Fold these 4 entries.
Entry 1:
Amino acid sequence: METIKNYFFIDLGVMLGRSMRHVSRSMDTIITVTIMPIAMMLLFVYVLGGAIQTGTDNYVNYLLPGILLIAIANSVGYTSFRLFTDVQRGIFERFHSMPIARSAALWGHVLTSLVSNVISLTVIILVALLMGFRSPAGLVSWLAIAGILAMFTLALTWIAVIPGLTAKTIDGASAIAYPIHFLPLISSAFVPTKSMPSGVRAFAEHQPVTSIVEAIRALLYHQPVGNGIWVALGWCGGITLLAYFFAMRVYKRRA
């Protein structure tokens, strides 16, 4: 047991490398997580942007925070899919019979989600720069944005872990991504909430994605953040802790 604890990070590195190889070899994952958000950004900026009133001269500046969150939301279905595949093939049982840390296999999937999203979000930001995106944010603001995006990724990833471990079919494992996709659409990610009907507006203004989008947008453009950043972090942290608690209960039951 002591040896397993001592080599936890080595085991974790091996599991991370294994999962990252699966991601890099899956063209479907690359298209959905990176290329589709870029295509959406191009569509909204160059086709629909002229008809959307956001109070900004360059719509890509308004749009980018929401596109980043959509890219993260697109990725969580693949976390569930990879976990479901490992469970069905008995991979976890095989790993648990070896002298490796039991939690390393699960954490390998979680960190893969984090690392792959860092790569995809970086590519999306670079494309946005080519489209005219500009930000006066300094290093501290960018670090705060990176922290919020990382926490949002972990929150959605731990939610995705639960169906990945419990689903009976591959469709059930991947279905978690669908309701998550709607949250950025019914938020201030694409248009200001004041343009929405009262009922939709009330939901949009009090759901987590709007708080996170507004906090990132304020950090990007030196606008007053106020308590918004703490609301965004509170949503991310609360969802992460709750999802982690239930995910680990399910994982320990299976282990």
Entry 2:
Amino acid sequence: MQALGRGLSRLIHFTTVLGVLAVTLMMLHITIDVVVRNIFGITLPGTIAAVSNFYMLVVAFLPLAYAEEADKHISVEVVTELMPTRMQGALRGFSYVFSALVFAAITRQSFLEAMKKQAVGTFVIQEGWKIPIWPSYYILPVGTGLMTAVVLYKLYLSITGGPSGLRNAMPDDVVTNAHPTARKETDA
């Protein structure tokens, strides 16, 4: 199963790089549009459509799985830290199951919606240009589908206790000891 974890990590790395490229391209696209508009008085056709229908979706949804792989989603552990280790593990498992169900539902529904948009050839018209946007509808199911896969894989690991294979995964004790707020009090 470690091979599956390494494969997921590669896919997560690839989608994260796509997110970084989307941010970079969006900045360049907007900058060029502003410069051309202020110097020559013309606008680049499709800037608003590209930013709102492509760049922003890639930036928002493709790196979701990266945050899960690296355990960087927001979590509040005020009460759970006080619970026994077994209870914490059970709650973690429940959160994986719940997350997998929610993200699987989002993936399914958004994929069905993307297929509908492709079938009708959804587009926007900006400054007289017809810009097809139906491909952008597939970004959400790709991001949430990868998130579902990571959460299911983490659920499997929490049940079996096997080695991860995920690039950013660390054993819980390493993460806890390395956390800056997890300093041990000493008598000095």
Entry 3:
Amino acid sequence: LLISRNTVDHDVAWTTMPEETTTLPNASQPNDIERYALITIYIVAFIGGTIGAIAMSFLLVKMNTLSVTTAAIVNLVVLHSLLLLTVPFRLYYYISQKWIFGFAFCKAVSAMMHIHMYLTLLFYIITLIIRWLIFFQWKDKVEFYRKLHAVAASAAVWIVAIVIVLPLFVARYGNSGEYGNTTCFTFQQELKKESVKALNYVIIAVVTTITCVLLGLQVFIILKVVKKLPGSVWSHQEFWAQIKSLMFISVIIICFLPYHLFRVYYIQHIEEKQSETYNDICLSITAISCLDLLSFVIGGSRFFKQKIIMLRDKLACC
């Protein structure tokens, strides 16, 4: 009798368990150290990105509005701002460890991170190509004929990203597995599809190849400038222009490449909780690219250049 009564009580306890705890079959939360790392990275990206976007907005007022480079920078400011708007939702989730904004919005926030990464890469490539065309004297300057052309070109990119890519991501992504109502950013079940795996491998190969080509060409240009310029290269504007181009590539290497390289391992070990957490950390590092505008503002200032020259002279004396 005691055994049967205990069995009944046990069954009743399971049937009266809150529904929320039974809707998370694939949920996994990072431990405290990893969670604090994610929170720290997103806070740094949010604060630094916001300051950089505001500072660059003031500088854009003085720039040539017909320049293709200026148009790319304007789009970067808008792109970073859109991502930064989603960061508070990620911070709330990692702090409270509970998602309360709905599954569709979770997919939209997740999609914005990837859209930001690849559009940032696109605008970097455009800016670098324009700089190289001018450097090799194939073009004196690259400008739109009218402001309307700049607006139309920017609008075309955003229409593809927001009107086509984002709805497709929200509609199609997250349909292969059962995801909890109070968890977010855990779409590892999608990687079990062979088509999704193949797409990821293609993207990884393309991004890695582009990064290597950009870096190789930029190093070649810098070496060519160093050989051509007389005396100390630190006092020449042309050298600093190439250093600024190298900063674009540095952001790609530091922020975007680790995510893609680790993705190769992650695809093959999607069932491991630790690999999922590391993938989230690598993805969060892509948000650090929002600091690029702040670095461009600081790097372009005369005060910064003077300090670099002073530091070089002190090291030379030592």
Entry 4:
Amino acid sequence: MPTLAAAEASNAAWAPSYVPVAIIAGGTSGVGQGIAEALARQTKGRAHIILIGRNAGAAAKIIASFPKPVDSDGDQDWTHEFVACDANSMASVRRVCAELRSRLKRVNFLVMTAAGPRGNSITYSGETDEGLDDHLSMRYFSRYLYSKELMPLLLSAREQGQHAHLMTVLGAGHDMPIPSSDLGLVEARRTSIKFLQGVVISIAAVKGVLRGVAYNDGLVAWFAAHHPTIAVTHISPGHVRTSGSSMAAGWLLAPLAWLFNFICSFIMISQDESAQYMLHALLDADRGLFIRDNHGDVVSAHVFSPDYTARFVDDSPTARKAGLLNGVPMKGYGGSDATVAALINYTERVLAEFK
């Protein structure tokens, strides 16, 4: 496990010859904000940093804090900007991606951190205006859509010999299996557990929190195997002190939530400290699939040959064995070739409705 000092030293050694382009979806708060700020400091502001989110006011304050390079020749080769997007709306995500593709020639880093206003709440689950589970919409569907739609820009960066890294920040390393039924949690939303005084635990919310992790394993497996020339990472931020890190519960469970949050205050790390570990993981990879923990350590990794041909549903006896990606054992990875293929097919059918 690298110490904070080791992660910071590793980050400090990174000095690209080009102006990096970074898109951070969820960059207006929490871990995403921390990563954006760390990248801005590391590059001394000489980077094209795009924050995607809903809070323009928060974005303006963050961008104002970035270092602003002084260009002696008068040519400004850096940009810091905010792009508004409601990641609960797949139509909105698709429009934003189309706009970015129309004006950007490459993207070096695509980082996705948005988890929604309810975060890890287990007391409520519903549907978005588009009919998607409101936990999975931001924790998975929007991330899949960003990955697919912006992949050409990552590949362009790689073709120019530059860093090209897709990173999703959620809950890597827990061997969370991808189920074979009720992928959209439609059936789960019909079930809840009622406690005293009407306190309700939503089964769909619990499953949404857990399945978001599993589905992100499937996401990185799919894109890493199909695009072996770039780096693809699922990473866990661990317990981080952010404005959305508190446990949410009904009034009857408030004492339990208070105790939980009190204990977590001693085991959580700061947003800035977490960002250094996340940045270390972002810079410490050339190509391949990476499952990483909250300190940026590699739980498991596999580098495919540049001409690798992905396979997910085949006649091999291992196609349904969890923890194997195209026959390669991956510690901390919960997918199987068959369940990943089913998940992606389901995802494509769902997202086809939002164009």
